[in-house]
Amino acid sequence: MNLKKITKKINLILCLFLTSISLYGILSTSIETIVVQSEIAQFVSKGEYVEEISSRTVKYYRIESDEEKPAFTLHNGIRLLGSSGDILLATGSPFPDIPFVNEFISFFFGQHAALVAGDYEGKAPYNGKKISITKYDVIETTGLADKKEDNCVSYFPNNFHNRYEEIIGLRPKNATQTDYDKILSYAYENMYKPYNYSFVFNTKNKYYCTDLVSRAYKSAGFDLNHDHIATTVNDLITSEDSYIFLYQILRDGVRHVYYLD
To answer: Which of 12, 113, 128, 250: disulfide with 165, CB 3.0–4.6 Å?
Structure first.
């Protein structure tokens, strides 16, 4: 068999392999999307309008449950989404104005993920920088900052409610306070580590947003990476170790917030 025939066979095998991977990805993501939309629809259907805390621009819908952990953190009269250790997810894409790219990212990955922080004072083991975090902040990582050094794990004020149109809040099933402490400690210990643009390589010292959340929860024994490849927003939602406690959707300038209480 000459070299030309061998090359053709190798190319054919590679082509079949890549096609199989692509089809698997599309099928898996399609199924996950259907499951996620079904879970959201069921969650929203249970909501009862709460007039006493609603306003012209924000409508709240209570879902009766045995939940003891509050769905909000009150700060200066504002109900910030989530409590310490909770996951906040934004659906959609960070590139809404770029055709095809927007649809591709929205379908396969989702937009963003963050952890609601707790009160913490200390230094980041990674580089010794001072950390002064409060329960009114979120811990997240981004790869879209203008300055290279800002593309890292960091903390910011929790303004998720104003940053994104569709937001999903997640919690781990049967978590204890000790579990939440481990989750947040993991995030604090990896503060300022760089963003991982490769997603599947060099995962020891770099993070992308959903990966940071997944690995922080893994440190407490919760498996949120549904397909165990690159962690997506859908993976976190469809994991058997998580459940939805909050959902926000923006319609015609009005925020509709559904929450367990």
So the answer is: 250
Q: Where are the beta strands (DSSP E) in 103-184?
A: 112-116, 120-123, 130-133, 137-141, 153-157, 166-172
Phi, psi (deg, nearest 5) at residue 251:
-130, 120
| Model pLDDT, residue 149 | 86
SS (H, E, C) 50-106: CHHHCCCCEEEEEECCCCCCCCEEEECCEEEECCCCCEEEECCCCCCCCCCHHHHHH
Q: What is the 3-state secondary structure (H, E, C) of 210-248?
A: HHHHHHHHHCCCCCCCCCCCCCCHHHHHHCCCEEEEEEE
- Name the more confident of 197 and 217: 217
Higher pLDDT, 164 or 22: 164
Q: Which two tokens stand for residue 175?
A: 């978590």
Judged against a pLDDT cut of 70, whether residue 161 lies above it is answered with yes
- Whose structure tokens read 């009766």? 64
**pLDDT, tens digit (0-9, with 9 covering 90-100), for 203-213:** 778 999 999 99
In terms of phi and psi (left: phi > 0; alpha: psi -120 to 50; beta: otherwise), the region of 197 is alpha
Decide if pLDDT at 42 tops 90: yes
CB pairs under 8 A, 24+ apart, for 96-103? none
Domain count, the chain: 1
Which residue has better confidence, 62 or 98?
62
Query: What is the rounded average pLDDT of the residues 115-119?
Result: 97
Phi and psi, residue 154, nearest 5°: -155, -175
Q: How many alpha carbons fall within 13 Å on the CB side of residue 28?
A: 18
Domain assignment of residue 81, given as a range: 3-260
Give the largest CA-CA distance in the chain. 80
